[in-house]
Fold this protein.
Amino acid sequence: MSDVLTGLLTNKDVLLDPEGRVLWRLKERHRKLQEQSVQKLITSEKLLSLVTEGCVQQKLDHFNAQDTRTFRQRFLVNEKHWQRPSGPVFLFIGGEGPISVYDVVAGHHVDLAKDHGALLLALEHRFYGDSVTPDALKTETLVHLSSQQALVDLSVFHQFISSRYNLSRANTWISFGGSYSGALSAWFRGKFPHLVYGAVASSAPVKAKLDFSEYSQIVGSSLQNEDIGGSVKCVAEVQKAFSVLEAELMTGDSSGVARDFNCCQDLKNEDDKVELVQSLADIFMGTVQYNEEGVLMPVRELCALMTNTSGRYSSYERLVKVTQVYRSGSGQGHCLDVSHEAIVKELMDTTRERGGQRQWMYQTCAEFGFYQTCEGSSCPFSGMVTLSTYTRLCSELFGMSQNALLQHIAFTNAYYGADEPRASRVLYVNGGVDPWHALSVIRDGTEERGETVFITDTAHCADMSNRRSSDRRSLREARQEIGRRVSSWLKMAALNST
């Protein structure tokens, strides 16, 4: 099939990251684009000079009094908007990656800090970024990487900041976070309600689940959502393309497929073929998850490519074209490494602390699951990506069986309440396009059971970004509603403290 594509493929450079984890790379790109979007503002207003960086000493194991080992946890402070001495404290909780200056100088929570005279803080998650020990990635040390330990880190940090800045009950704390850190924001309020008065949890997957098949289902429904440029035809073409791809891999010339997608090597075995399929599916998943956030192309453009019948190209050939567009937009200039053996080797490397992939893989195995399978009839991609694709990695990397994974997930949901939380004054914000909303709280809440904002036509964590003229009306209204909720909490706290 490669010969047919001679006229379509004009660039010999390649496409995806060498680890084959496109979604992870897109998440990092999303972060960089956010930072770049406010770089001029940071420079012009000399905001860097207003940010203080420091470290707080944390116990490696908060739950073992006999273990005296510690590590240094990084944090950032911005006092520019703080109205001393009684102004509130807005805490941005770090997730599965390093924190940056962006977290205390830009974003919707920073806009709210300006309105309310708040002290801005950001705390990096243990074992990510620079908040690591020398042997952090060894499996025997990773046992101390958990959301439970992270919440106690937050409580220690609360005490540390309160002492350093001479804070009192008059300084109301509100926590903010998105995605995994959004879940941490909700859980911090639930487990330490005496420390944080209210919490905003954006795109927060608070329900752990081993087989997260809903992710692919929502990607499929979003690809046919006409409000964001999708169509039934788009999904049909995507399914057709992956069906042809799967047939070629199973019964045809897999070496020709490897050439079509410019793989670094021939597809040696079934695992390599699954890695290829997952990498290509990730492009569509990332397009939906970050729709209109500038990371890749929006759903409208992707579907226009997949449904373009002006040329003589088949759906499979248009899939190749999509990967070309991804390559040119993401700046990837190397071949696509789909070697399962190489990917496992990378994930077993215990010297690459800052990347975060091994740490996050451990957390999914030890607490959450979140494995994005695609085995049902509604799958828009390929059924080759099964649950065992992921659970085998838990066994290979950390020696965890699937039965152990099920036990870990059951504990997580019992400990936090899954999608039926019991904490008050937690605002769950979700986008209807975002596949992660399936594991969050999206129903209408009550004061006793939390509150919700659902934005039908926006994607992952869109509400957390800076305001843009291109923002949808629904997103602008959602930010206004978030602002009203935060204002009401602060007024309530002021009344309670008098």
